[in-house]
Amino acid sequence: MKHNLTEMKHDYQNIPIPPELKTRVKQSVAQAKKDSACAADAFPQNRHKATHISKIRRFAFCGIGSAAAAVLTIAVLANSSANIAHAMEEIPVLGTIARVVTFREYQHKENQMQADIKIPEVQVENKEGKVLADATEDMNDAIQKYTKQIIAAYEADVKAAGGEGMQDLTLDYDIVTDNDKLFSLCFQQNIVMASSSLSQKIYHIDKTSGKMITLQDLFLDKTDYQTAISENIKTQMKQQMAEDETKVYWLDSDVPEWDFQHISEDVNFYINESGRLTIVFDECQVAPGYMGIVTFEIPTDVVQDIVKDGYLK
Q1: CA 215 to CA 88: how far, in whole Å?
Q2: CA distances from 312 to 79, 98, 184, 212, 307 (A)
Q3: Looking at the structure, do residues 257 and 187 belong to the same domain, yes or no?
């Protein structure tokens, strides 16, 4: 068997690559970047519309830039044929020391109940290619726990519905931060029933320490980062509502218990391509459902005196 596998590997690595195939792959990367830019321009015109229930699956992408869009295109092409995967060896690397592989996909359909859940496995390596065992294990354990909870909840719904329910559940993932300091993996969950519910979960690995981290780990010990960030978010909310009447946030409202007070310790966040901290709120968490998932980019000068070196720009 080992001999056969060796021969198969040799044959795979020596597959001839048609010139037109290399061109196609490179064009796909360029097109992905272009499409991402166009989507960013178009998004402000559509983000205020109320969510409509449909059979079309929608995903709440967490601030994905053009590089991430190119990664998605390459991933699709790489899985489609050996020729394409081999041709990609000559494409400039987009930059990552963490490998993400979808090793399992949970799919189920029963009458009007259906689910499509992608469960990735992460392998974290240092720049020399050595696997960081603790970081890899911690990340995969967290992913397994999170996805098992979602599957269990869905299966409970199917059982309770007794074949009469209607639900469309999707769970996908993307890399939202991959720089010299951080690797962040974002899960996007969409549940469509009588209405649509969008939520997400973001996991982070500090590439320097090789450990999973939370927002608190970005800041110096015993500093009130929550207040500094929360006050800036409130300022942004007020400014956005003053400039655009279609935007509504739960702030200084007639229902004080609904109002946004401050971020929690486990709030979702990522570092965007500009090197700035971005706070993410699920649908209906700080605004009406039609606002969808909302994000706030925090100016670095707001936290520059309390943030640790290397995380923000």
Answers
A1: 35
A2: 34, 20, 14, 17, 8
A3: no
Angle at CA 283, nearest 5°, toward 277 and 286? 70
Q: Is the pLDDT of residue 220 over 90?
A: yes
Most distant CA pair in the chain, distance: 73
Residues 138 and 201 in one domain: yes
Are residues 189 and 291 part of one domain?
Answer: no
Q: C-alpha distances in angstroms, 163 versus 73, 155, 157?
A: 37, 12, 10
Q: What is the pTM of this model?
A: 0.68
Nearest CA-CA partner of 261 in 292, 237, 294, 245: 237
Q: What does the pLDDT look like over 171-213, one tens digit per residue?
A: 999 999 988 889 999 999 999 998 889 999 999 999 888 889 9
Q: Comparing 31 with 66, which gets the higher pLDDT?
A: 31
DSSP classification of residue 50: P
Last residue of a domain, one of 189, 213, 237: 213
Number of residues that make up the chain = 313
**Directed axis angle between helix 19-46 and helix 66-78, to 10°?**
140
pLDDT in tens, 113-146: 999 999 999 988 877 778 878 888 999 999 999 9
Q: Quickly count: other Cβ atoms within 10 Å of residue 116's Cβ.
A: 15
- What is the extent of the structural domain holding 81? 1-51+63-94
